[in-house]
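Journal club prep, notes for RB
We'll compare a predicted complex against what the paper describes. Inputs for the KG4 case:
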Amino acid sequence: MTTTILGIETSCDETAAAVVRDGTEVLSSIVSSQADIHSKYGGVVPEIASRMHTEAIMPIIAEALAAAGTTTSGIDAVAVTMGPGLIGCLLVGVAAAKAAAYALGVPLIGTDHLEAHLASIHLERKVGFPFIGLVVSGGHTNLYLAHSGTEYEPLGRTRDDAAGEAFDKAAKLLGLPYPGGVEIDRRAAAGRPDAVDFPRPLLRDPSCDFSFSGLKTALLYHIRGLDGIDDSTLADLCASFQEAIVETLVAKTIKATTKHGIPRVVIAGGVASNSRLRELAGEVLGESGIELHIPSAALCTDNAAMVAALGYNLLSNGARTDMRAAPYSTSRRSYSRGAR
Ligand code: KG4
Ligand code: ZN
């Protein structure tokens, strides 16, 4: 018997729905991004985002069902992102999911957005447990020890800005459009990563925590000391700033693998599509004999297939159905219990 799950994701500025069979086979995955609208304001405007989700959610669900060649009667469960994210945005997805599950008489499964990013890898390949999971997105930079498809133990997180947030803020300082990560990645290709020696925050700190806000300030002061920024200076700044973030992410990930004796890593989330992160992680982890898995770019950005994938794991484990949207991490294991 197969289990077909409708996944719904509305935590930030993507309205997404997907249909996934048995947690691994993506029958459809529709993502509608609001990035164009928010770029006018230089970042996500929560009120606009939630209003746009409200307009988009039903057509996107209908499109996902149609693209999967199914109707609502072919759906065995509904999985939805319940947090973390923007509360007004989450509420739209959760309300739609609750209504759909109630109307269809099928289970409703609430999923944690960050755990779902890690679960996305199983849509492309089989990865064994345990693994060290790094989730790098616009709002989060978290390290986990994944014991199983439903158990993600927090090991560390950013103490201030997330890696994606640092990219976005740096892009703004450099006059580049939102979302800034992609733009910095692109410009960095023509620049020298050692042109400016930006700090590598918390590198020598024994914890698996991150801190990126100082890096952004270092960039600000550096820019203030310049007469102007021509294309080649811009490329150098992008490459050097990117190198500082990427080196820190890779170093902390290696630290977690050593600390816990786990030679297997999954990197996921929007920033995981960064070309330099993929390259450096491949090199450094490869040299250390550590297995590395990064989803393809389409699965790194927010999508609902990953929500359905995690939903399948939870359903198989008798997931709770009583849930509501929450702006904070909804991981089943509390951060404080994680070994730091
Ligand atoms: O996971 P995601 O799609 O949404 C959140 O859950 O936040 O991540 C979005 C973040 C943004 O900060 C964006 O600038 C960053 O991912 N990002 C990148 C790249 N592509 C997206 N950062 C660096 N390099 C990229 N190629
Ligand atoms: Zn995300």
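Talking point for the session: The chain has a mean pLDDT of 93.
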